[in-house]
Amino acid sequence: MIDARLLEKGFSAGQALAHFARANPDSGGIASFVGKVRPDGDVKALHLTHYPPLTLPGMEELARKAMERFALEGILAWHRIGFLRPGAPIVLVAAAARHRRDSLAAVDFTMDHLKSAAWFWKREKRDDGWHWIAPRGQDHADLARWD
Amino acid sequence: MAVRILFLGPLQDLAGAAERMVEGPLDWPGLIRAVGPAVAAQLQDEKVNVACAGELLMDRSALSARDGDEIALLPPVSGG
Fold first, then answer.
1. Can you tell me the mean pLDDT for A105-124?
2. Closest residue of A to B10, CA-based?
3. Residue B15 falls within a domain, yes or no?
4. Residue B58 is part of which domain span?
5. C-alpha torsion B38→A81→B51→B28, nearest 10
6. In the beta sheet, which residues pair with residue A124?
7. Number of structural domains found in chain B
8. What domains are defined for chain A?
9. Contact between A49 and B9 using a beta-carbon 8 Å cutoff
10. Contact B77 A134 (CB under 8 A)
């Protein structure tokens, strides 16, 4: 079962995970990751943009790849778009599997791809205005681990 | 009808707008001429992807946009 969503409003990771657990009753374990807007110095807000024809279809394709690559019962990938405040959740990934290694690795795999191979662009508002956030070299190195 | 060029992420600051309408048809050299020097310089970088009519182009130089198509210029991403 794949649950990929783009969200324009804030969400509760706890509620999402409770629902995901009920939807995957036969799994032996569920791993999850919640990414938040890092409360960092003078960052006032984060703005996430996307490209509708590609972004959600790309997330669904990524979720299918994770299902094929790992022995999963289900995967959830939710990503925020729009304006966010420091501390707010941006992304939630969860994977349900018979065994823990598959669920943990699937979350790691999916997050690495959402960071540097999904159609999102981030900018942050600081005291001196808006700044686009460039991808980090580390993100690409993380992604290359799965080749 | 015309071709709509969308500038995603930081490209919209370089273009000075989120989108621009130009007359079709449009090929790769035509696109380079249409986007202005700042964006054209960015397009030299192969990491800037191009989508046309909702499909990512494997070979950007094969661009062939007709009136009514939307071209999206997609610079390196930063999600998560």
1. 96
2. A132
3. yes
4. 3-74
5. -10
6. A46, A131
7. 1
8. 2-144 (3.90.1170.40)
9. yes
10. no
